[in-house]
Specification:
single chain; 472 residues; TIM Barrel; Immunoglobulin-like; 2 domains; 8-stranded parallel β-barrel; 16 strands; globular
């Protein structure tokens, strides 16, 4: 081989190596923004990591906690987050006034001492809903004080966990129950399938508990980020199935959870092949990739922001094959704007998104809203409507679509304007663009099923046309 041939061969070899290091789908090809996807974030209460930043035992301190949470939710909403995974049960302690477990010292400064002026969980739910975001109660299932684990083979352990979940579901209008640490410790040895069966039976009991109370609630779990070895990649001895005995893909096959949020806090060959694996095994349910934005921090792996951009784009490229969005760990790194994560999320989330509908075909879509009216109030337009009839449970909310210059299309994510509106009125700015826009209003139930739209146009003269009849 002459020098020229050797040089060409080396260049070709380097190119092959570079191609081999890329994910299956090129990272630079950004997939369209889906109309439905989880854009979730874990909001951590333990150790005062995300919220509250300090415990409070006085009305003044509690007022500061409320203001701090509102600021966090405003920031999350501004970058496109639609689901808050609110840590509700920490390690055998909780953030709300429970009859079964003590209030966390991270809330009040003293374990068992309750807040005096507000209920932190109720406040979080209300404030999320005001901003059109869902609030899921994040429950640490089997890990308790001092990082010890309880044994899911014990009926009393499962019964107590189900009682805790039932207390939350009955007492609060959460949008879902999110289970964490539903697993054995990493160094547990022996009786592998027995342990998997115990974890699965525990989840099955929790799932049935939730669905018996409110079948429209989403039950999700956060397993380890790699299920087990795939045809394309090795898990390097660290996976859900063998390491902590989570038979997670079988949970979806059996239908005892609605969604998995695997903790995929890795990159490169430890991330991309496993996205494909999770997406290929959803069995009609949901998979949202848990992304470790904490790895952007210089004290962690010091990732470049392009890593998160590539990961979100890659997950979206599987949107028609089982992938349904992402969850970010954790909220504090968005609040700190680590590596410019806020700007990146705003760039990636150019329009709102609805969460995926639950895979329950026994319920049809809700009725459309009706009798839409408009009132000028200074520089604003108030839109009012009659509630969608024929249904009281599950709860109904509303979505508003807007298109300027083209007919409104409720299948186009770019036309989604405001999501999960409570009540039957909303106020929007009155501008020249607003007055010339086309609008559509839909009802959406808590299963995620959306009604046919009611559509109308606003003229520049602010003479309003009557809404057209509901259309398909």
């Amino acid at each position: 081989m002459n020098e020229s041939s050797r040089h060409q061969f080396l260049l070709f070899s380097v190119l092959l190596i570079m191609i081999g290091c890329l994910p299956l789908r090129a990272q630079w090809l950004s997939a369209p923004t889906p109309k439905r996807e989880y854009r979730a974030v874990w909001l951590t209460t333990i150790k005062n990591l995300d919220w509250p930043s300090t415990p409070a035992s006085t009305p003044t301190g509690e007022a500061l906690q409320r203001a701090e949470l509102c600021a966090i939710l405003d920031t999350l909403h501004a970058v496109g987050i639609n689901t808050v995974l609110m840590q509700t049960r920490l390690r055998g302690d909780v953030i709300y006034p429970s009859v079964r477990e003590p209030v966390s010292a991270f809330i009040t400064g003293k374990e068992g001492q309750r807040t005096t002026t507000y209920d932190p969980l109720q406040f979080a739910i209300d404030e999320c809903h005001k901003r059109g975001m869902q609030c899921h109660a994040w429950i640490v299932a089997l890990q308790v004080k001092d990082n010890k684990y309880v044994e899911p083979a014990e009926p009393a352990v499962v019964s107590h966990l189900c009682d805790m979940v039932r207390e939350v579901v009955r007492g609060y209008e959460v949008d879902g129950i999110h289970l964490d640490y539903l697993r054995y410790p990493e160094k547990t040895k022996g009786r592998d399938q027995w342990r998997r069966d115990n974890v699965t039976a525990c989840l099955r009991a929790v799932y049935r508990t939730v669905k018996a109370e409110k079948p429209w609630l989403c039950v999700s779990v956060a397993p380890l980020g790699k299920y087990r070895n795939t045809a394309r990649a090795s898990s390097q001895g660290w996976n859900a199935y063998y390491t902590v005995f989570q038979e997670a893909q079988e949970w979806l096959r059996e239908g005892i959870c609605d969604a998995l949020f695997p903790m995929m806090y890795y990159d490169g060959p430890h991330f991309y092949p496993f996205v494909e694996d999770w997406a290929a095994h959803t069995y009609g349910h949901h998979f949202a990739a848990g992304l470790g934005i904490y790895q952007l921090d210089p004290t962690q792996l010091d990732w470049d922001i392009s890593t998160i951009r590539s990961q979100i784009s890659h997950v979206r490229s599987f949107a028609h094959e089982g992938a349904c969005g992402y969850a970010l760990f954790r909220a504090g790194f968005i609040m700190n704007d680590t590596k410019g994560i806020r700007r990146e999320l705003r760039h990636l989330n150019t329009s709102p998104a609805l969460v995926p509908a639950l895979a329950d075909e026994s319920h049809g879509r809700p009725d459309s809203p009706s009798a839409v009216t408009f009132t000028l109030i200074g520089d604003s337009i108030q839109i009012s409507w009659a509630a969608a009839g024929g249904q009281t449970t599950p709860p109904i909310r509303y979505n508003l679509y807007r298109s300027i210059g083209t007919p409104v299309d409720t299948t186009d994510s770019n036309h989604l304007y405001l999501t999960y509106l409570n009540g039957t009125t909303v106020t929007i700015p009155r501008t020249t663009r607003t007055a010339s826009a086309s609008y559509a209003l839909t009802a959406i139930d808590s299963y995620g099923r959306e009604s046919r739209p009611v559509v109308w146009n606003l003229k520049k003269s602010v003479s309003f046309l009557s809404p057209l009849s509901a259309r398909r």
